[in-house]
Amino acid sequence: MKLKIGLYSMLAGTMFFMACKKGENTPATQQVYEQQDQMGRPAINTVFVSTGEKDMFNTTTPSAMGAAFGAKFKSKLLALNAGYTTNLLGLNADQFTGVLATDVLNASTIAPTTFYDGTNLLTGRALADDVIDVELILIFGGPDASANPGLTSDNVSANDKAFLTSFPYLATPH
Amino acid sequence: MKKRKVLLTVLAAAVAVTGGIIYAADHLDAPAVSNQATDITDVYVFRGENTNNLVFVANTQGLLSPSATGAAKFDEKTLIEFNIDNTGDNVEDLVIQAIVMNGNMRVYGPYKPTATGTRSTISANAFSVQAKVTPYGQAAIIGEENGIKVFAGPRDDPFFFDLGQYQKIIGGTATSFNNPGTDTFKGTNVMSIVIEVPKSKLGAGSSGALNVWAESKKAIN
What we know:
heterodimer; A: 174 residues; 2 strands; B: 221 residues; mainly beta; 5-stranded antiparallel β-sheet; 14% helix
């Protein structure tokens, strides 16, 4: 193990010197990885971010996202659905976009894990969850999910391959 | 090529233009291979077959056709990191890190990172399990050590969505979804990392609540 650690340090040092033209006097450092992309909830969060702010959103830590993006998310929601009042969860535009702007996937170690199954809400995301329909309903469906009926389901309700009951759970590739 | 970014572009175009103009979707621009490895397409967290475990999935490099899948690779300079907040403040208390090295997907943690935020290092002594990256067309290679399992390799994209019709709606050339819809992701693959962890290692409080997000991080030095 020590040998391996030493080797990795040497490699990291080599790469550092190769990458840094003026690095001759800089000591070798541990490999550092800088954030490029991040994701919590599916689709909806990224949908609400403007193209020019995509990189910024992807490198803003979740604890800072609400303050930075909450108002922008609200504008986007009302642009998508000008008639938005509340949704099936009883959330008004401020409340709904306030939740969405912090891009984390809520999960539970106790409850059944699902994005929404009619009973459990945001306790995880299972492979078969129809997350798009849930999000369409919350954006377009109004307080009782009956508004804009042509926009509250894409009518694709399942994956094209069956999932596995055992690890690694995802279906074999096409 | 990332599907969420496709959505984003489409929506941004729709918001910016109020006349049903056909947008130039950026999913037609093939990004460099080095960038694809950092594109996270989806994150899943669900109970394992053993319900004492939680499964973490990060999919990358979306919309791979079968003919392109055999050549798809994980990048040795790209760290995929699951961040886990178990105290409700949306700051990571634990991380699970995965990075490919010499053909093996190596997993570190879950462990408390030395620093939170947008820069990470890997603590070598947090190593928990590894598995050879499964080649396209071969049976899944599964690593298991310390009660933690890992798989890495190509899989069917589990995501399903009529993205095409959605684009028409946002673009102003349609007013509703079709029934039945058409799954834009049918027949496509992703490069997937699947890690199964005993819940006991996740430090959840009595509420059982966790906040999870995945990050891709690129070696910078």
